[in-house]
Every structure is written in structure tokens, then in C-alpha cells.
Amino acid sequence: MTSDFDCDLLVVGLGPVGAVLAALAQSQGVSVIVVERSPTPFPLPRAAVFDHEIMRIFQMIGVAERIAPLCRAPERYQFHTACGQVLLDFENAKVGPFGWAETYALHQPAVEEVLRNRLYELGVRVQTGVAFERLVQDPDGVTVGVTDNGISREIRARYLVGCDGSWSPVREALGITLDDYNFDEPWLVLDTIIDEPGDLPIVCQQICDPKRPVTHMAMSGKRFRWEFMIKPGETAEDMLDEARIRELLAPWNCADRIEIERKAVYRFHALVAKRWRDGRVLLAGDAAHQMPPFAGQGMCSGIRDSANLAWKIAAIVRGDAEDAVLDSYQQEREPHVRAIIGTAIAMGQIVCLLDETAAAERNRDMLARKSSGAQDVSVLYPDLTGGHLTDTACAGALFPQPVSEDGERLDSLFGLDAVLIARSAIDPAGTSVRTFSLDSPELRKFAEPIDVWLTKAGADAVLIRPDRHVFGTGETAALLGAWTELAHRKIAA
Ligand SMILES: Cc1cc2nc3c(=O)[nH]c(=O)nc-3n(C[C@H](O)[C@H](O)[C@H](O)COP(=O)(O)OP(=O)(O)OC[C@H]3O[C@@H](n4cnc5c(N)ncnc54)[C@H](O)[C@@H]3O)c2cc1C
């Protein structure tokens, strides 16, 4: 890259999404600057849970082993009626097919601290107290005006990603509007610390009581969250009143030992930016999409954006791909995000029902369907489609991550490279893809589950992208050819 650039990638915003993007990109040889308006990290939790895919991404940046001890893998996530009947029940596999537990409860500031420390270890230039103000694009890059502790200066970058949250000044600067699902529900969110939980249930649950829908989450350590729906006629001020909060918590019988760390009123809504890319500027995380928290997927979706973008930007910077590869970002991510928003809204509509008759009907219908083995809402999210993928079996699926008997995870062999695994020996010459044959010594302890997977896909080989989604299956030469051809296409397919 030419020297008149301060960096290849400027990340605006150091929330979890910006931190993961910066760490992944820098680890893949991209020079990264992060600017963050706030001089200090945001000290209060927002996300309560994240999933296995996110832990796998943390593994890619070398922090999963540090983050896992900070988290708790809940047994299940349930939706109850007011009298405790289970409407929805999601069991949490302790180690699922992707190498980690299905779900982890977290304390977001503790996880973000690990991510920040990792950025310093990787040599990312983190600039706090520096606010994005404006940008100008030209064919080669982006010139960004920032305010650095009251002083204006410029940063020049090849690419900019706005990870600057729901109000996103970067999105504003680009004039990008939001598609609104018209889901808009006000809730009181309480974050608490309880030294002696006693008989407080250690669960993640939605209590679908039409008198007052409530979320109760045992997060990690001594932290517990309650969320109370605010009903028509109630005001935020009423709900934030200390006496009112004690009244709301009375059924849990813990008022005498609770420390309220934060009380805030949020409006839960669902929004998707109409465009996620404008030339050399992209949006990720809450800047690109927001959703109600009932599926626990807002931050997860943003971190998936980061994993999708980082390797594509790195491939362009290395000269292994054309800029057009970035058009596949929104093509792949938007349908995935919209499917998850659909799930989050479906869950929200179950929880947020205030009409007693309608709630009784809901309970009756859902319990009947459940007793016949069906569950109304699925958390099996779709594979990627379109974008930077071949049209072959299993393309777009997340490749499994088997764990060997001695506790090693498959991805630890792969680093951050694209990988081709074939049944027969491969000549690796002339490809940037790392190649493994099923009988190679490194792969031996994972060979059996991969063999089973290839057989199910009806293929001799699989090419896996750096974000661990399957690029395609089939025959080695065809896959390697398609990988190079698609990367060098001037206009994305
Ligand atoms: C009550 C609640 C519960 C939730 N539960 C879950 C859950 O269980 N699981 C889940 O996955 N998600 C959950 N979420 C959503 C999750 O918290 C967010 O999706 C996630 O924090 C967004 O991360 P981000 O990095 O995109 O944005 P943010 O974390 O908002 O970070 C944006 C950063 O950009 C900075 N910034 C803004 N403007 C500028 C500027 N001009 N210049 C420089 N920097 C700037 C901000 O200071 C901020 O640090 C929940 C949210 C809420 C509110």
C-alpha cells in the first residue's frame, strides 16, 4: 500500500463489533486504526448472551480461552406462561457441532476489555477520545475529518467501516436511511449485582405474563438482569422510580441483597440500513441493523458482519481479490440478519402480549403444538446465500468444528486462511488456500467427522472461507479455480 495512507482500514467505533473487526483485520496483515469518541470504555452491560459462532470468532482472534472463563453456559432459554408452563424451550448444548456451547451468558464490559487488550497486543492503533466528523471519498481512498480532544485533524485510509452504533454518524454522513419494521416496545432494563443469590433461579427466561411481561437473566458471576415491559399509560419516569423498582422485583424476594448497577429505559425496535456499502465505506453492527433483544442476537449479528468483512478487506489489501468482492458483504449478510430479526420479532410478539384473552389463546395454541412435538420459533438460522459462494452442495453453511479427544479444535490448524480439505493428496503449488488431505497427519484426529461430512455433501473436497463458511464442495481443481476466479471478478456476481 502506498505511503500517503495512514492505514489500510479505519474502524470508527470501538464497541464489540469494531473491536472484533480491527483484531481480525490486523491479524490478517491489514494495518488498522480505530477511532473511538469516548475516552473510556462503556462500563455497563447491554448484551446478555452470545452464541457458539461468536465464541468461534473469538477463537480466531486468540481470545476464546480468556473469554470462556468470564462466561456462563446456561442450561436452557425458556418462555413461560404466568403460571410457569413452558411455551418455548431452547436447550443449550454444552459442546455443539461448531466446537463451543450453543449459548454463553456474559458481562459485556468484561468481554470488551479482553478484546481491547488483544488490540494492543496485535499492534492496532487505538485512538480514544477521537470522534469521526466527516468523510470525503476518491477513487483510491477515504479522507476522514476527526476531532481529537477538541483539535481537528485528518486520517487517510483505503477503507472505512462505521461500527459506530445505532446513531452512526458515518451512516448519517452517507445519507443512508433505515428500513423500519415498526416494532417499537419500551422496556425498563435493570442490571444488578447480588452477592448471595440464595434461591434466585439461575436461568434465562421470558415470563409471558400479560399483566407484565418480564425477562429474567442470570448473567455471569453475580450479575442478574431483569427487563420489565412498560405498559400503555406508564411513563419512563414512573418505572425508573426506586420504590417502583423494588415493587417490580418483589416476586423474586431479593430486594434486601440487591445492588442496582444500572436502570435504563430502552425502546426495542428493528431497523435495517438500506445500503451497507458506499464506495470505500461500509457499515457494520448496530450501524447497519438493530433488533429487539429477545433472540440475544444484536451483537452476535454485528460480530458476524466483522468476520464477513475482515477477510475480504484483507484479500483486497494483499492483492488476492478485487474491490468488487465487498459487494458480496451486504448480499450475504442482509438476508441472514433479516431472518434473525424475523425470529427476534416473533419472540417479541409472543412475549409482549398484554391482552389477557389473546394471551390465554396464545398459551392454549402454543402448548397444544408443543405437546405434539412442534416448537413455534426456531433458532436455526439460515446459511449464507448468493455473494461470494459457489452454487454447490452446502455452500454458505458454517463448516463444523470437531473437537478431538485431547480437546483440540479443528480451526486451530487453520489460522485465518481459506482452507481446502480433500479426500486425496493435493499439490498446494500456486494457491493462497491452505490445503489438507484427509489422511494428512495434522488432520488425522479430525478425519472421521470430516469424512462423514464430505459423504453427506456427496463431495471429494470442500473449500472453507476464512470466516469458516463453506465456499463450495466438489472436486479440488474446480474449487480452487472458482476461488481465484470469483476473487478477481471486477463486478461481483
Ligand atoms: C437491553 C439490551 C439487551 C441486549 N441483549 C443482547 C444480547 O443478549 N445478545 C446480543 O448479541 N446483543 C444484545 N444486545 C445488542 C447489543 O448490545 C448491540 O447490538 C451491540 O452492543 C452493538 O455493538 P456495536 O459495536 O455495533 O455498537 P456499540 O456497542 O454501540 O459501539 C459503537 C461505538 O461507536 C462509538 N462512536 C459513536 N459515534 C462515534 C464517532 N462519531 N466517532 C468515533 N466513535 C463513535 C461509540 O462511542 C461506541 O463506543 C442488547 C442490547 C440492549 C440494549
Automatic annotation (TrEMBL):
Name of the protein described by the UniProt record: 3-(3-hydroxy-phenyl)propionate hydroxylase
This protein's UniProt keywords: Oxidoreductase
Taxonomic source organism: Sphingomonas aurantiaca
Domain (FAD-binding): residue spans on this chain: 6-341
Gene Ontology molecular function, alphabetical: 3-(3-hydroxyphenyl)propionate hydroxylase activity; FAD binding
Domain of life: Bacteria
GO BP term (any one): 3-(3-hydroxy)phenylpropionate catabolic process
Keyword Oxidoreductase appears in the UniProt entry: yes
Pfam families associated with the record: FAD_binding_3
